[in-house]
Each structure stands twice: as structure tokens, then as C-alpha cells.
What does this fold into?
Amino acid sequence: MRTGGSDPALAFEKIGVRFGDREILHSVSLELARGEMLALAGPNGSGKTTLLRVASRVLTASTGRMRVAGRSASDFSRRELARELAVVPQDAPIAFPFRAGEMVLMGRSPHLGPLGFETAEDVKIAREAMARLGIEALAERSILELSGGERKLVLVARALAQDARILLLDEPTANLDLRHGVIVLDRVREFVRSGRSALVVSHDLTLAARSCDRIALLARGRLVATGTPTEVLTRENLRATFGIDTELLTASDGAPVVVPRAPAG
Amino acid sequence: MIALTRRRVAGVLFTLLLVLLLVGFAALIVGPSALTPSDVVGALRGAEPGGAVADIVLRVRLPRVQLGMLVGASLAIAGVLFQALLRNPLADPFVLGVSGGAALGAILVLSLGASVGLGYAAVPPAAFAGSLCATVLLYVAAGFRGRVSATHLLLTGVVFNAFASAAIVFLASLAGLMEGARIFMWLIGSLSASRADMAGWVALFLGIGLACAIPLARSLNLLTLGEESAKQLGVEVERHRRILLVATSLMVGAAVSVSGLIGFVGLIIPHLLRLLLGSDHRLLIPAAGFAGAAFLVVCDTVARTLLLGRELPVGAVTAVVGGPLFLYLLRRHQRRAFAQ
It folds into this structure.
């Protein structure tokens, strides 16, 4: 169901998540516009990954609801949702030695019939996704032999091959060297250029500021600030969110650079 | 990039089918009475019906070879499914006590069924019920949800096995000396032709199991990535897992009800095939069927010819091959766990 209307690609409406007594998310409302790349940042345990899990519907919110292209997310079958929304997990523990190429091809799953085999077209899409991340050479390698960073690139390629309207990325640049971190975020940037959207959980505020249109700060399950990088990345916000003093510099292209200082007393 | 194609699946399966037919033919030739290949061909073609050669081939060896193929296929496929569902290459229905559960169900009927009017035909359904109960218990105790550590899984299996053995010993003792001895022989796992009349049951259970598992083979690939990733890639995880668990229990139940506890087939064959063919279950599931069938027929032929004039239970042969392999896999698994 690809509606082309003006509804946001993804909308969280007062999402709350509780595990027993612990409140992980408290009434979070956030919209991801079409063509937007939105960073979600916040300290460890602030609920970022939980929000992504709600978005991909592997976790059901205790309160609130979520819409995908204007339609209630609970109306989608898993398969339909997987065609709208692709996820790059933090890491994937892998039990069997699938080859990296097979892993990327699994991204084509939501597009195949139950007895379906991948077509030449599917293989082409998967190969292109790998080429865009510069990992064609890994195609025949066992996923168990890859380094953490290489495995991450394979997971990104899989999500690109899934050809969804929305990308959800959980710490896509963790484990990656500087060059590959930039490559991944640039590919995501390209992805949103065609009117698609991406939600990126990231600890690297400087990298997020360089690539994303907006940043949402989450602390203790609540949304603290949302806006452009320069609006959101202020000393006050960062102190309130991370409990740390920071120095904010400006890169030559105008993007903010966050330099952490001593923890705030 | 190599993608799995229908052509590759067909090619591999055709090769394995040829191997299976060759093995089956050889098993018809080998035995205490020396036959030549042309004797066997003649008997199969129906030359000289009622003759001694035809008797040996058609009434002694062929039913046993058929049963061996059905049981071997069921055990190997059940192993593949179980390992994928538990996301652990060490998971084997025999080692984890699922076969023990099936045996317990079967023996309940064998030892007590007669008094309530249940005949031998009730054994396969009872074995299925037993293996399903054991699978569900394993599910609850070890938890399929997260990735369970191999240690936790194996310990749970050891406890299940101990419990099932104790219950079986208890029931066998109740059954009296003669019947008890028969039950113990059966427990070790044998393909004696006396159960050949049950081949239809095994074929039925295997067929239903395959009909459930084959359409879900691609889902199974995704399920090995973990529940969340599978869902995010569009798999209806709960429903598919339930169907696959029932399919596994059906195949284990069928195999155990006719042949007792033949161990390690579900470990050896999947391991070998993963090395040769990779991890894609669209190929592994049917390939395990043919390879498991051929393997068990070979083991059974060894079992009935190794000691002249006497017969080994085939379960002893598979255990001799499977035990060391299991230990090797366990060691490698631990080393990998440390390396990660």
C-alpha cells in the first residue's frame, strides 16, 4: 500500500512502553517526514532502541499508536510492513554460516512468494546494494568469518536490498571505521533523496549533525528536543540529556561539532 | 553472487536420488544369503514369483530397506528443522530427549494399551503425542525465544532423557519379563522387518511433515537469524514456528514408533550437508531426506552383516558414528563461543 499522500512516512503518537514497573518510553510523539533523515540520540538506556523496536513492530507499545504512511501500523501484515520498513539491527547473532551474499539476498524475502526463489532481478538488486557499500568482494565469504564492522555493512546492504520506503538504523556507525561510517551515512542520505525516509539511532552526534536533517534527543524515555542540528545541539540540551559539559564548534560547512568535556557536577 | 536456483536444487536432489537408489540396490544384494545383482533385478521384475530368491528380496530385504529409507529421511529432516528452530547446530531430537518423549508415548501404548483395547496402530499417534509434549516442554524449559546457550539446551535434554528412560524402565518392568526384554531391544533402535507393516504410517507422517516444512523453508532461513530479525523481514514467526514444531514432532514420532531410538542421524546428516551444500533450508530439507535415507540403509546393512549370523541393532551403528562427531562439534562450538 504505497500511498503518495502528504502523510508523514512514520508517525509515533504518544508512544508509551512499560516493562512491569519500569517506564521505558513516556508519551513519545515524533514524526518522520518523507525525504527526511532523522537522528535519534540520547544516553544509554534512554529508550532509543525500544522506539525502533516499536517502529518495526517487534515490540507492542503499552500506549499510543504508530502510523506508517498514514495507515495504522497494526493493519499491516508482517510481509506488508517489511516492504515499507527495513531495519538495520545493532548486531545479529548468527547461528549458521550463511554467505554474506545470501544474507543480503534475504532482504528480498518480503517480495518473494512462499515457495519463491530469488530471480535474476533480485540478485541484481542485492549485488547493487553490496556494491554501493563497497563489499561485493565479501559475497562468497561466510558471515561467521567476517569482522563486526563487515557484518554491519552486510546488514546495511540487506536493508537496502529490501527496497522499503523507510530505513530504521540502530547504531549503523558503531563498529565501523571513519571511512565506512561516512560511507554508510552517505548511502542513507542518497536513499532519502528519492523521497524515502530514514530514522538513525546514533551515539555520534557530530556524524549525525553532518548527515541528518533533524535530531531528536531522548532522555529517560522522554523526548527532550527535536529540531535541526544547530537548534538541538546546544550546551543546555546536551547537559540536560547526557549530564556532560560540551564545547560546540562549527565545521567549515556550518555543521556543529560536539566536543565532550568533563561530566557536569 | 551465487543465488540458490530451482536448477541447483533439482541437480543436487537428482544426484542424491541416484545415490539413494544405488545404496538401496546394494542393500538388496548384501546379506547372509549371497545374491547376485541379476538375482535382485530378476526378483524385482517378478521373475519366478514365490521362489526362494524372490522371497528373500521382496519379503525380507525390500521391506526393511523401504523402512530404513523412511525412518532415515524422517530423522535427518527432523534434525535439520530442530537445529534451525533452536538456532543451534548441536540440537538433535535424540540428544535433546524428543525421541525419548516419543518412545515414552509409544511404550505407554505398548505396555498398557492392550488393557484398554488399543492395538499396535495406536503406537505412532502416541509416539507423535510424546514427541510433541517433549518438544513443548523443551520450548518452555529452554526457551526458543532468545538464543539459548548450548549448555543450557543440552542440560535440559539430558534431564528429559533421564526422565524418559526412568519412566520407560518403570513401564517395561510393569510389562513383565518377556515383554520388557522386547521393549529394551526396541529401545536401542532397530529396523527388524517385523514392523514393516507400519511403513505406511511413517510415510504418512513424513509426507505431512514435509508438506508443512517445504513451503516454510525460506522462513526457516530467516528464523535462524532470530525472532526479531525474522519478523522484520516479514515472517509470521509464531505461526510458522508452531507449524514447524508440529512437523518435527510428527517425523520424530513416526520414526521412533517403528524403529525405537536410533540416535544421531539427525545430527550427522545435517552437519555433513551443511558442509557440502551451505545453509539454505530450501535445499537442506529435501537433501536431508535423501541423504538420511541412504545413510540409514547403509548403517542397517552394516548392522545386519557385520556379525555373521547375528544382528546388531542399527542404533548401535549410528551411535558409533554419531557419538564422536557430536563431541567434535561440541568442542568446536565451544571454541567458537570463546572466540566471539
